[in-house]
Amino acid sequence: MAGRLVSETLTKLSQMGDVTLHEPAGDSPQAERVRRARKQEFNFSDCIANLQTPSGPKPVLKTMMTTACERNCHYCVFRAGRAKTKRVTFQPDEMATTFDTLERAGKVDGLFLSSGIIKGSVTTQDKIIDTADIIRNRQGYRGYIHLKIMPGIEYDQLYRSMQLADRISVNLEAPTSARLAALAPKKVFIEELVQMLQWAQQIRRDRQNERLASSVTQFVIGAVGDTDLELLSMSAKLYSQAKLARVYYSAFSPVPGTPFEGLPATEAIREFRLYQSSFLLRDYKWDVEELPFLSHGNLRADVDPKQAWADVHLIHQPVEIMRAEREQLLRVPGIGPVGADAIIRNRRRGALSELLHLRQIGIRRPDRLAKYILLNGKQPAYQRRLF
Predict the structure, then answer these.
(1) Within 10 A of 343 (CB to CB), how many other CB atoms are there?
(2) For 278-288, how does the pLDDT look when each residue is reduced to its tens digit (9 = 90+)?
(3) Burial of 275 (0-12, 13-18, 19+ CB in 10 A)
(4) Mean pLDDT value of segment 331-337
(5) What does the pLDDT look like over 56-94, one tens digit per residue?
(6) How far apart are CA 339 and CA 319, in angstroms?
């Protein structure tokens, strides 16, 4: 009986289509998209994504409780009324049993569970919670689980989801109420989405002795006129106030059979520049005001934001490698946290006076940072680019 249930569930998974394209789940989201961008036919194994999770690389079952949805988000492949979407629904027992079978067979070691919304967010979240509860407490799985949070669920549901999961997703989709109304008219920005992230941080703060999930969010970029300034301003607030683990940026791609099918796709380079800037906010503690926005509120596409900043601020005031604080070193293009620590550690042993010395301690492309630094008071010689 269990074997037949699993077989039927695997068949249903193969009918779901490539859900892995529509929401990033790991810590290398661009690699997730590239791997499957051109695939047209699917089987159940396409729901297994090799993801970089917070606990390392894992094969993760990435799936949904249902591809049916009563919401009408203008960009979404699963929106209500889209005739081309195959509607597939799972019950908690069958999803949990199939995950258990795949995990015991060594096919997966992690679960990313999302869902369309049917009979309201509360009912849908209950099914997600019931599935995770079976996997954790009946089947005894202690590995990685990432759960999607439905908009506007109850506080206790959010708390229970955080107890069961390692990570939760509350996807804002847009950086402001007005942008969200144009993108997903049935979602409410503050009460249904932002409040979930605020509650999650409150739960972690109030229950510091418990093991609770971290939080992430996602923005769909480029469909409704959103600017990089809007997106990164909201990202900065979420990092500082809601303590998000990370923010995902998903370049808009038109889906046939949706109201936005005729809109142009957002260029992948814009998504990439947003990720670079987001890491400066999260990992390097930059302020939004320091990012090099152009007059229309977007970043330059032709150069990474750290270099764009350095071209304005460091060309005439280069950083002295032998005396700079760690924070100053991290402002130099080509120097990350590992490189900054290596510089501080090795300069105690003697002068770093040549680009070769930087290469020897692990700076992979010292020529890239030559124009932004001084070595013992002198700017190192380097080959200037002609173009």
Answers:
(1) 23
(2) 999 999 999 99
(3) middle
(4) 94
(5) 899 999 999 999 999 999 999 999 989 878 889 999 999
(6) 14
- Rg of the chain over Cα atoms, rounded to whole angstroms, equals 23
Q: Strand pairing partners for 63?
A: 113
Residue type, 161: S
CB burial class (10 A; 0-12, 13-18, 19+) of residue 304? middle
CA distance 34 to 325: 38
Rounded to an integer, what distance in angstroms lies between the CA atom of residue 377 and that of residue 334?
A: 20
Give ∠ CA 180-279-306 in degrees, rounded to 5. Answer: 110
For residue 43, pLDDT beyond 80: no
Q: Is the CB of residue 275 less than 8 Å from the CB of residue 33?
A: no
Average pLDDT over residues 95-121: 94
Give the span between the Cα atoms of 119 and 249, in whole angstroms: 29
Distance CA 171, CA 375 (A): 46
Which residues are within 8 A (CB) of 339 and not within 5 positions of it... i.e. 6 or more apart?
329, 362, 363
Instruction: Reduce the secondary structure of the chain to three states and give it as a string.
Output: CHHHHHHHHHHHHHHCCCHHHCCCCCCCHHHHHHHHCCCCCCCHHHHEEEEEECCEEEEEEEEECECCCCCCCCCCCCCCCCCCCCCCECCHHHHHHHHHHHHHCCCCCCEEEECCCCCHHHHHHHHHHHHHHHHHHHCCCCCCEEEECCCCCCHHHHHHHHHHCCEEECCCECCCHHHHHHHCCCCCHHHHHHHHHHHHHHHHHHCCCCCCCEEEEEEEECCCCCCHHHHHHHHHHHHHHCCCCEEEEEECCCCCCCCCCCCCCCCHHHHHHHHHHHHHHHCCCCCHHHCCECCCCCECCCCCHHHHHHHHHCCCCCEECCCCCHHHHCCCCCCCHHHHHHHHHHHCCCCCCCHHHHHHCCCCCHHHHHHHEEECCECCCCCCCCC
Please state, in angstroms and as integers, the Cα–Cα distance from residue 343 to each residue in 359, 361, 379, following that order. 11, 7, 17
Task: Please give the Cα distance from 184 to 71 (Å, whole number).
Answer: 8
Global pTM value = 0.91
Half-sphere exposure of 362 (CA within 13 A, CB side): 12
Q: What is the distance between the alpha carbons of residues 310 and 318, in angstroms, rounded to a whole number?
A: 9
